[in-house]
Amino acid sequence: MSSSTAESRIAMAKTVVSTIGSVAAAAMVVRSVARDYLPPEFQDYLHLGFRNFINKFSTQITMVIYEFDGFAENEIYKATELYLSARISPQIHRMKLTKRANEKDIKVAMETNEEFTDIYNGVKFKWCLVSNKAPTREHYRNDGMNRSTGSDVRMLELTFHRKHKDLALKDYLPFIINDSKTRKQEEKSVKLFTVDTMMVRSGCPTMWAPVNLDHPANFATLAMDTDVKEKVMKDLDRFIERREYYRKVGKAWKRGYLLYGPPGTGKSSLIAAMANYLNFDIYDLELTDVRSNSELRKLLVSTANRSILVVEDIDCSVELHDRVTAEPPRSTRRNQGWGYHEERKVTLSGFLNFIDGLWSSCGDERIIIFTTNRKDKLDPALLRPGRMDVHINMSYCTPCGFRLLASNYLGITEHNLFEEIEDLIVKVEITPAEVAEQLLKDSDPDIALGGLIDFFDVKYKENEEAKAKEEESANIKVEEEEKEESVAKENGKKKQIDMNETD
C-alpha cells in the first residue's frame, strides 16, 4: 500500500470523525435549546416524530403489556410476570425478592429497567420491565384480597422481529398464559375464604377475606370406610376430567355433594381432604351473614373457578322453606349507620337460582358442598340430582375407621384388644372424633386402648339415657296431641249442643 493511499484514508477517517462530532455537538445544542425554550408539548411531538422516523428503518416491533387494564388486573401481565420469574438467568443483574410470612419459598422477579431474552421455537423475544410515575390510582385485585393503590404505572415491553408477530400473538403469549396457570396451580397454597362483612357493607366488589388453609387432612388419614373414600376420589377425578363432556351436554361444570350425619363424624375433615386433594380453595358461606338474595348473588359470582363452596349446617343456618321473593319493601329498611340496611332474608327459591339456575353457569370447575346433621329436615328441592348429586352418609365409627385411627394415632396395625373393640363399635354408636380423643390420651397402646374400652361403657349408658329421654319426649308429645284432640272433640260436641238448643 502506497503512503499516499494511507494518508488519504487517514484524512478521510478524520473527516468522518470530525463530521460525526459536529453532528453530535449540533444535536446536543439543539436538544439543550429545545429543552430550555420549547414547550413540553412541542418537545413530545419532536420526540415522537424522531422515533417514528427511526422505526421506519427498524425490523423490530415492540408490544406493551400494562399491569392494569383500567381498574382491573391484566391477565397477560400477571401470567408473564410468573413465567419470567421461573426463567431468571445470570444475565439479569438486579432482581426483586419477596416473601410473605405465610409462604415457604422466596419469590424472584425482574426489577425495573432490567431486560431478559427468552428463546421460543428458535425465536428471540426480549422482555423489559418499565415503570413510569403517575397519579395515585386505586385498583381491585382478582385474588380475593382488598383493594390496592399505586403511584407508578408498570408495563412489560416485548420486542422481537416483525415477521414473528403471528407467532407471538397466536402461539407464544397463549403458551405463557397456559404455563403460568399450571405453575400457579402447582405452587399455590389452598386458601379458606370467609365473608368480609365490612367489605359487603362498604359496597366494594371484593367481599371475601382469605387465610391459608393449613388443615392436614387427606384421604389417607380419614377415618372412613375404604370403599366410601375410593368412591369420593373416583367421583372427583371423573368430574375434573369431564370439562368438554359438560359443555357438550349443556350443563354447568359443577358438582354438588351433601354430607350428612351426626356431629363428630368427620364432615369438615372430608371437606379439607377434598380441597387438599384437588388443590381447590374453599369459600365458607355463612348464610346468616347474607342480608338478601341480591347480596348472595354478588358473593357467589365473585368466587373463583376451581373452588369449593361450603354451606355447613344448612338445616339450622337459615330458614329456607319459602319460595317467595326475598327483597323486602322500602318500608322495612332502616338506617344502621352504613346507609340503608335490608332485613336479613334469603329464600329457598333465591338460593336454588344461584346453585342450579342461570347464575350457576357463571364459572367453571366448581364444587358445592352442603353439610347437615339432620338430612330429613332439609327441603326436598335442595336434595335432587343436579343440585346435590352425591349424598355421603358420614356414619358413626366403623371397625375399618377404628383401625385407621389406631394406625394414625398409635402407629399400630394389630393388637390383642382390637377384636374386643371392633365388637363394641358395632354395638355402641361412637363417633370417630370421640375415638380419636381417647387415643390421644396416652401414647402407650395398652393404656390408650384400655381407656377406649372403658369409654364404651360410659358411651353406652349415655346413649341409653338419651334414647329414654327421646322416648319420654315422644310419649309426652303423643299424650299432649291426644289431649288436644280430646278437648277439640268436647268443644265440638258442646258447640253442637248449643246450636241445637238455639234452634
Task: Write structural notes for this entry.
With 503 residues, the protein is an alpha/beta fold. The protein is 48% helix and 19% strand. The strands form 5 sheets. A 7-stranded mixed sheet has the order 10-9-12-13-16-11-17. A hairpin with a 2-residue loop joins strand 6 and strand 7. The chain starts with a helix and ends with a helix. About 6% of the residues have low confidence. Its cofactor is Mg(2+). Keywords: ATP-binding, Hydrolase, Magnesium, Nucleotide-binding. Belongs to the AAA ATPase family. BCS1 subfamily. It holds the Pfam family AAA.
Task: Describe the global form.
Answer: elongated
Can you summarize the main beta sheet?
7 strands, mixed
Query: What's the total helix number?
Result: 16
Structural class: alpha/beta
GO biological process, one term: response to stress
Family: Belongs to the AAA ATPase family. BCS1 subfamily.
Cofactor: Mg(2+)
Keywords: ATP-binding, Hydrolase, Magnesium, Nucleotide-binding
Please summarize what this structure is.
It contains 16 helices and 17 strands. With 503 residues, it is α/β, with parallel strands linked by helices.
How are the secondary structure elements laid out?
Layout: H1 3-37, H2 40-55, E1 60-66, E2 68-69, E3 72-73, H3 75-85, E4 95-98, E5 107-110, E6 115-120, E7 123-139, E8 148-161, H4 165-187, E9 191-195, H5 197-202, E10 208-212, H6 226-240, H7 243-249, E11 254-260, H8 267-278, E12 281-284, H9 293-301, E13 307-311, H10 314-317, E14 334-335, E15 340-341, H11 348-356, E16 366-372, H12 380-383, E17 390-393, H13 399-410, H14 418-427, H15 432-439, H16 445-502
